[in-house]
Amino acid sequence: MNKPAPHAYDPTTLSDEELVQRAHGELFHVTRAYEELMRRYQRTLFNVCARYLGNDRDADDVCQEIMLKVLYGLKNFEGKSKFKTWLYSITYNECITQYRKERRKRRLVEALSLDPMEEASEERAPKLEEKGGMDRWLVHVGQVDREILVLRFVAELEFQEIADIMHMGLSATKMRYKRALDKLRDKFAAEVEG
Question: With a threshold of 0.85, does the pTM exceed it?
Fold first, then answer.
């Protein structure tokens, strides 16, 4: 009986874990399993990055970096966590790195500018408040709380997965999540009444 070629399969029918196993054996000669994993998460990855970073240009750049890190790191992924958790851990770290780079760049521009206030306001454009939906509300919470809310609502991760990614305890993650939601509810109620 003839065995099918190792790459003769429909990647859309496989689970993430099965695709990871396939990728271990295929990469770097065949990328079908890797491509299917990226296809599954591409839109959510972009949305997570865009909400972290506040603009599509940076989000697109960071997504490209993430895809490369996954491509080169997938062979070493041991499966100690779900693929999705590992992927969002990489995403979180890349977004934080980009956020810090942009913040350093903004501080340098402000320091070198003749009119720091004018330069600073140009650097922040486009403002999150000018966008609608979730982005409008995320500006009202701190960076860590924003990250927790994005991982919960955009990436749809469980609290334990978020805690693992952010290197926080489960109860601390849930507490920050609840406090951030309470703050947003209060802010929303005040705007509705006002």
Answer: no
